[in-house]
Amino acid sequence: MNGNYRQLKPSELKELSSFVSPATNLIRWILFLILFLPGAFLLFKLNVSIASGVASYAWLVVTAFFGLWLLKKFNRWSGGSEFRSAVKKDIAGSQAFEEQHFMNRCVMFEEVEDEGRSYLVENSAGIVFFFSGQELPKNFPKFEVTVVKAPYSNHLFKIYAKGDVVETKIATASVWDQLPKAITGETYVKTSFRFDDILQQIT
Length: 203
Known about the structure:
Blueprint: E1 2-7, H1 10-20, H2 22-50, H3 58-77, H4 80-93, E2 95-109, E3 118-123, E4 128-132, E5 142-149, E6 156-165, E7 167-171, H5 173-177, E8 188-190, H6 195-202
């Protein structure tokens, strides 16, 4: 695995800036309120019903806990404050990282839940990477794969593939179900798998 830094392209800088722009923050809070206010109203109505028509302030406590829980979930859905802080570092540094891999072997999973095809690919160093999603190039997998991402936030910009076609085996849905859920739903992630172990599961 090789890699090098380069200057952010204007399109990449614009993409990063969209995560932390005032307009994005405003939309984020509007969406939060759209989810929170109906929930708070339902909790109030439930409290009134339980209290035989006499409202108490207990619903305020429950609503506060509901708001904190929802905010925590909402932060996770929107990347969270740590991700946005990392994005700001990427913008300040104004660099992208191009990570190059030379691939040896590949296992392909047919499209799962409309996410596009997914792959476990072993590079020349014996490290297995998980690639998935509709963002993958149509000619994937090829011998040389370049992953372009932001160095601090790890936000993925682009994946390129070129060279000879990598030998690929097809895996069944039962093998997919055995994958750790931590890696599913990601476009690109390094795993701790051994490729030979994967092959034993599909043979």
